[in-house]
Amino acid sequence: MDILKKLENNERLNYEDAIKLYDLDFFELAYYANRIREDKHGKKTYFNINRHINPTNICKDVCQFCAYSASRKNPNPYTMSHEEILDVVENSSKNGIKEVHIVSAHNPDTGLQWYLDVFKKIKQKFPSIHVKALTAAEIHFLATQYNLSYEDIINKMLEHGVDSMPGGGAEIFDEKVRKRVCGGKVTSQQWLDIHKLWHKNGKHSNATMLFGHIETREHRVDHMLRLRDLQDETGGFNAFIPLVFQTKNNYLKVKEAITGQEILKTYAIARILLDNIPNIKAYWATSTVKLALIAQEFGANDLDGTIEKESIQSAAGAQSAHGVQVQQFVDLIKNSGFTPVERDSVYNELKVW
Ligand code: V47
Hints:
Elements: H1 3-8, H2 15-21, H3 26-41, E1 44-48, E2 50-53, H4 82-93, E3 99-102, H5 112-125, E4 130-133, H6 136-145, H7 150-159, H8 175-182, H9 188-200, E5 205-211, H10 217-234, E6 237-244, H11 260-273, E7 279-280, H12 284-287, H13 289-295, E8 302-305, H14 312-315, H15 326-335, E9 339-343, E10 349-352
Parallel strand pairs: 1-8, 1-9, 2-3, 3-4, 5-6, 6-7
Antiparallel strand pairs: 9-10
Helix pairs in contact: 3-11, 4-5, 6-7, 6-9, 9-10, 10-11
This protein binds ligand V47.
């Protein structure tokens, strides 16, 4: 059947259909993605008031795309103490944060409890703050390093107060590309298995895809369809987040930076393909704020949050080191014709600004 007919009838698309979407007229693609966005969310654009914390950059893995890790090109190794992390949360709590998003490197020297105890300490002191922490890549690292199963680590996360899992570490699922960009860390299947186990506990998580490096359109579609399959089984993903590759200070030799048009097409295709994932997040730290605002017309209904400080993408060249002020965020969303809605970490609406 003709692809346009399928889009018109809101039919689920397969791999071949999805590849064809990239060749559609740019604005026709935007039209269909936006139609789905409007059906699901109207003109609402979600964001949250949150704080990113990256407690250590010492890593036993060697991902080619990473500029953050001290075992790559970052000349400043660090590991924060729990007191330092609690101070950060304390300061940010004065700015009204509702979530801490905690993602670390894979540090073999801290011991398992360093990773876990800080969650309990945050929860004890700030019970209303949502703790989003430990990517599937970190869970795999901790399980391997301390000879535990994924279930063991997940049970410990629950005991220590982790509320939801971020979507990091997914990178690109195609095994050949994965081997080249991050061989040695969590495999694609392990990443999916870990999220499945987390969802089995009635918990939610996000899913990312790192694109704009050496992958092809086919690899992106394959990645999204593997996520769609798991979501059919568990329903546990809240959001899909296509992360635009930042090119500075890393070992991946990318000849040409991805174009804004290709990024917007990928958001739109994500919105069309992932009919079972409620939210498409244009994470402004990797897309730039300006493109994230345009992405609202291409299926994205979430811009992540204020983040305050960010170390992973900014190490690779993103303009995200210091976050965005709430009022600025709200004004930008309003001025682009959308309705800013502050949400909590699992997409309950808190305030229409
Ligand atoms: O998995 C590393 C990525 C991710 C680069 O769940 C890079 O709500 C671009 O997952 N260029 C971690 N990206 C961040 C992450 C995330 C961010 C925001 C929201 C959520 C969420 C999750 O950062 C890693 C990796 O794919 N990354 N290096 C780079 N050079």
